[in-house]
Design a protein that fits this description.
It contains seven helices and 17 strands. By secondary structure, the protein is of the alpha/beta class. Helix 1 packs across helix 3. Bound molecules: fe (ii) ion (2 copies). The site of one fe (ii) ion has 7 residues, from helix 2. One fe (ii) ion (FE2) binds next to helix 2.
Length: 280
């Protein structure tokens, strides 16, 4: 099975023709039977940057079969309307329904960090919203995780807020999910947006629902930028035990966690950058 992943938007850029921005957008091209299918995982933060980079790579918009939103934060959903405007047909958009629940940061000042559009606006622009709390099968051996079961004690969600039943309360970001694939002969690929559910929780959940133990690759944001040393060390230890061949952290992983992961995992861990092509 061919499964190629191109980084459309990430915080850091290596290639002069591409723009970078805090956010994430990944382009996946896979062979499904005799067909070639193309999908986006997240859409970056702003239409201008995401659309510019898709044009720079000459990928085309009308070839997109699917858009998957890993969660409702602005830096993953903000490019959607720009992409839809460039498409001449409607496109299925997979997401958890809670991407549209209030997404807030409380410090230093109350800030809305959810999608810069409503469900109705996305649909009007051409999105066919497919909302599910559980996993969705995309192709043979490729699926979304749905809500991630959380059992790892050191992986807690902190400093996000929402409003539920008219009350301001901590947001555990239940909408956070990953795209997973089982590559024959290699093992499980786990592609995260921010991994707010915790990367180890996400991997274990993926192993359970896919029925595959062997972890091959972990790619995406690991949201460890505000994590303390203990959580970073525990994550690195757990990843070492899971023994993946490829680890490509980026976006919200944070420099301290990235260095620690590289120390622990050696050569198989390399940071993600805008423009990277990863052939799995
Ligand atoms: Fe993020
Ligand atoms: Fe996020």
């Amino acid at each position: 099975m061919r499964f190629d992943l191109r980084v459309i938007v990430e915080n850091s850029a290596l290639y002069p023709s591409m723009w970078s921005q805090h956010g994430l957008c990944l382009y996946v091209e896979m062979d499904v039977g005799s067909d070639r299918k193309r999908m986006l995982i997240d859409t970056g933060q702003s239409p201008e940057v995401t659309v510019h980079n898709i044009d720079a790579l000459d990928l085309g918009f009308d070839d997109l079969d699917l858009i998957f939103l890993s969660h409702g934060h602005y830096d993953h959903t903000g490019g959607l309307m720009g992409i839809l405007r460039r498409m001449s047909c409607r496109v299925p958009v997979l997401a958890h329904p809670d991407i549209f629940s209030p997404k807030l940061k409380g410090h230093p000042f109350l800030r809305f960090i959810g999608p810069p559009f409503s469900r109705a606006q996305a649909e009007y622009a051409g999105a066919i919203m497919l909302e599910s709390t559980g996993p969705i099968r995309i192709a043979k051996n490729v699926m979304t995780t749905g809500e991630v079961e959380r059992s790892v004690p050191f992986e807690k969600v902190e400093s996000f807020w929402t409003i539920k039943d008219n009350l301001y309360c901590p947001d555990t970001i239940p909408d956070d999910q990953a795209l997973i694939a089982n590559i024959e002969g290699k093992g499980l690929v786990v592609i995260t947006g921010c991994a707010h559910a915790g990367v180890i929780n996400t991997i274990r959940h993926a192993q359970r629902i896919m029925g595959v133990e062997k972890l091959y690759a972990v790619i995406g944001g690991l949201h460890l930028m505000d994590a303390d040393d203990e959580r970073i060390a525990s994550t690195a230890r757990a990843l070492l035990e899971l023994d993946p061949s490829i680890v490509r952290p980026g976006h919200c992983t944070g420099q301290k966690a990235l260095s620690h992961l590289q120390q622990t995992l050696g050569d198989r861990c390399r940071p993600l950058a805008t423009g990277d092509l990863i052939k799995l």
